[in-house]
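Long-time lurker, finally posting.

We've been working with Enoyl-CoA hydratase/isomerase (Streptosporangium roseum) and I want a structural starting point before designing mutants. I don't trust myself to interpret raw outputs, so I'm hoping someone here can both generate the structure tokens and explain anything notable. Sequence follows.
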Amino acid sequence: MPERLSPWDGRVKPTPFEEYSRKYEEFFVMTRREGIIELRMHTDGGPFRHSWIGHNAWHQAWAEVGNDPENEVLIITGTGDRWHTGDPAELWHTPFPQWSTDSQLKMYGDMVKLLENFVSALDIPTIAAVNGPGTHCEFATACDITLCVEDADFFDPHFLGGGVPGDGMGLTLQHTIGTKRASYYMYTGEPIDGPTALRLGLVNEVLPRERLLPRAWEIAEMMMARPRASRLLTHAIASRPWKRAFLDDLGFHAAHQLWGMAIGEAGQLDRLRQMTERFRGPQAGESSRE
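Top reply, 14 upvotes:
Generated this for you. Predicted structure of Enoyl-CoA hydratase/isomerase:
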């Protein structure tokens, strides 16, 4: 049931869907139907390719989506057969110790706000449909409900690259699969595919790719059939543990990751390059292994 304000009540007019959907169209294809808003990450119509501007756009998009009362359930997914892609050489062509102080501070703010805004600015039920492998699954695991395909790859690459796992994936692992298991996967970077994620309690359902998004919409439509107040208040209960976790530990984790990056130990980029296939998947004309 859509929101109905009393005649005496009011609100500063939020940014309309048409405006913010265009504003973030470089990073998301936004679709809305009967209160359900789907955010499909993409780059040039293909799988989302990680960039610092995209990293910055995420938390701002969460805030604008959450500020629109016409959005009552959120679905977030990726494009094609990958959740996320990237190339470490493109991202780290300038070593972090050489970044300006303001750029380093912006990185800290983006890292923290990415998850803080996801659970604080979005006061509506959230559903992730993880459509394939790729990093930055932290906000997918922080959704109220997480669905995935069999070949998903929930992994934290930071320690394998010689860094510190502080941008949120390690933290969400600690709060979903437990401290001991999370430590193992943070250190080893072992893949957590869909069936393993289901067994560990990281996701709720594993589905064939063609059923993934329809199932997310089925659940969202079921939610929309319930009273609006019930949806919002149930989400408040579901997200409260995440709010506590991020308040207590997210800044600590992020600061330690950036501290490790600022020390600038040699060899991190070379180690990350060894995992290129895992970040971006095999490209056309390449063999399955580099």
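Before you design anything, note these points.
Confidence is low (pLDDT under 50) at residues 283-290.
The beta strands are 28-33, 36-41, 73-77, 126-130, 145-148, 205-206.
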